[in-house]
Each structure stands twice: as C-alpha cells, then as structure tokens.
C-alpha cells in the first residue's frame, strides 16, 4: 500500500511538473505569436507599398492565422474562414490587374505576402500559392478576355479558388510525359486520364488541366484546358492523409469521357508544356516564400524558447552551442529571402528568371527543413510534442523540397542555366 501511494504521489508530482511546463509553454507560445522578427521597419530594399503590405500581412498572420494553425493541422480541415479573410485583404488575387478585381500589385508583393502568411500557417500558405501562382498565373498570362471574365474575376475574392493539374501517378518530375489525353470531338474536347497530388482539389471551382492532344509531338503535343468543377466526367479520389500542410486538400482528379467546351482551350493547341513551365517558374518563387515563412516561424519559436528556458542557472540562449544554431538559422533565412526578392524583381522587370526562381525555391525549402530541424534540437523534448509549434513546422517544411520541382530538379535547372550562360 505504501509503495502504491509513493508511486501515486510520484506520478502526481510528475504530472504537476508537466502541467506547469505546458502552462509556461502556452504563455511562451503566445509570446511567439506577437513577435514580428521577419518584419523589418523602414527596409530600404522594399518599396513603401510592399513594406506596408509586409507589416499588414504579418499582423494578420500573427492575429488570425498562427493562433488557429495548430487546430487546422490537428483537424485536417480546410480553413475556409482563413481563406475568406485572405480574400478580404486582397491576398487571393495579389498580382491580378485591378480591372479584373485583383489588387494590382507586383510579384514581389506576392512573394512577401507568401512568406508572412506561411509564417502564420503553412496550410494557408499552400492554398494561397496553388490558387495565385498555379491557377490564376497561367490564366493571367494566356486567357482571352472571355476566359478572364469567367475564370479570373470571380476567383480573386476568396469565395472561389482554383487548382492546377499537371502531375500524374506515373510522370512526377517528367512533366512532358502526360498520359492524360484530350481528343477533339468537333464542338468540344473529351478528356481521359488521371491527375495526382492536386492541391485545393476538393474546394476548387475550376482547374487548369494539362493533356496530350498529339502524342507524336511529345511535349509539344500537350495542351492546357480550363475545366470547371464540378463537371460531368470528373471525379475526385480520396483526400490524401499527409505528413504536413494537413488542412489543405490533396487528391486525384479522374477524367472519364469528360467533355470540355472548345472555348476552354487555354492559349493555343500544343502550348501546354510552355504554359506549365512558365507557371512553375513563377510558382517556385511562391514556394520559396512558403519555405522562408516556415523557417522564420521556426527561428521565432527557437529564440523565444531559448530565452525562456533555463539550464545551469542561465537561459540556454547564452550557450554557445545554441547561439551557433541560431546564427546558422538566421543566415540561411536571410540568404533565401534575398534570393526570393531578386527572383521576384527580375520577374517584375520582365527578365528571364528561371535560374533565380530555382535558386530561391531551393534555398527557401532547404532553409525550412534545416531551421525546423534545428528548432526541435533547441527545444529538446518540448520540440517533439504538439504543445509547441516546432513539430508542426518540421512536418510542414518537408513538402517544400518536393512539390513544384524537387530539390534535385532545382539543381538540374540551375546547372542547365549556368552552363547555357557560360556557353553563350
């Protein structure tokens, strides 16, 4: 009996210590949320408009996104309210011209907003990215006036979102090997095939779909189509149960004799591969922003914890080993951020930015995984439990090195561009 009581007392003491620790860390979590470490006032390298945007979106992320990010992750629920508020701020059509209802800002503004939104909630970041750069992006570049009126204007307020269907179960990084086919049936097209890993699939009201219209021409025989959703002949596969960004829906799009109006061809026949590559170049800047946002959130969390956690009579932030980790995290974030801004500005200037976008995406995504890993090391055991956001950042970071071109593909793109520059 005494042994049982002693064990019970010991267990109660341990439980009390853990509850005290969790209470302290809930307070610490609130401290993390109100930090604006990534917002640099009077930053000379940003325009006044973009600095104001950065501060506004950072405040929105801290007040609206970050406090709900953990719940979104645990419930795997699409954050409809978040998306609606993002729409109210103009974030769901940032670089779309004002005459089409968009905010009319530049791509640098989009990159900045992507970082701050993702710093608050990576799920919200990927929803915003897939909608802005992958759905609206190709429409902005190639849609005719009628298509723009129908498929851009209603999609910039957050009430409707779109998706982008390029990947297939068998092609992955080989974007030119599309097995989905589109057959010209006179007054309409008929689509058959399957698209995989489609972000926003369950909530989308339209999708940009890539299909082969002439197999003999290989990648030059791919065309792009605007497919309204839902539509007859298109079904959705199951929602994928993912490691991270769990609030966004990811599923297969399955086309079985799906009829698409002739006027829903985007651009010209055979332009699909060109449209896809241009879209991915721009999209990589957005994913760089997402990675940097996750990395910054990891650093914010690590510094707040290191200042609060005491060991050997002092905050662990005074320990050289911890300071080295923080220094490496900060350096990777700043390097990636500057690469992202450079790529975005080159796009805004109408320059070729393929290499720079790949560099930004590679640096941003690797900064995300590195910083998320280091944050968990700094937090120790508390980094491994869901009471702190560090473990969620770690899971969310991993996908940034995979989608919109793996890190390996980015290195191939960068090397190819470098060799071309030296040989020209």
State the main characteristics.
424 residues, four-stranded antiparallel sheet
Describe the overall structure.
- The structure is a single chain.
- The chain has 424 residues and is α+β, with helices and mostly antiparallel strands.
- The chain is built from 11 helices and 10 strands.
- A hairpin with a 3-residue loop joins β2 (181-184) and β3 (188-199).
Helices and strands, with pairings:
Blueprint lengths: L1 H32 L14 H28 L4 H9 L18 H14 L1 H21 L2 H7 L9 E5 L15 E4 L3 E12 L4 E9 L9 E7 L5 E3 L13 E12 L3 E2 L5 H37 L1 E2 L2 E2 L4 H29 L5 H26 L10 H9 L8 H17 L1
Parallel strand pairs: 1-4
Antiparallel strand pairs: 2-3, 3-7, 4-5, 5-8, 6-7, 9-10
Structure, briefly:
With 424 residues, this protein is of the alpha+beta class. The chain contains 11 helices and 10 strands. The protein has helices spanning 2-33, 48-75, 80-88, 107-120, 122-142, 145-151, 272-308, 320-348, 354-379, 390-398, 407-423; strands spanning 161-165, 181-184, 188-199, 204-212, 222-228, 234-236, 250-261, 265-266, 310-311, 314-315.
For the biggest β-sheet, the strand order reads 1-4-5-8
Amount of helix: 40-55%
Oligomer: single chain
Beta-strand residue fraction: 5-15%
Q: Give the integer mean of the pLDDT values.
A: 91
The strand count comes to 10
- Estimate the global geometry from the Cα principal axes: globular
Separation, N- and C-terminal Cα atoms = 86 Å
Order of helices and strands: HHHHHHEEEEEEEEHEEHHHH
Classification by helices and strands: alpha+beta
How many separate helices?
11
Q: Poorly predicted ranges (pLDDT <50, ≥5 residues)?
A: 1-18, 33-37
Radius of gyration: 23 Å
Major sheet: 4 strands, mixed
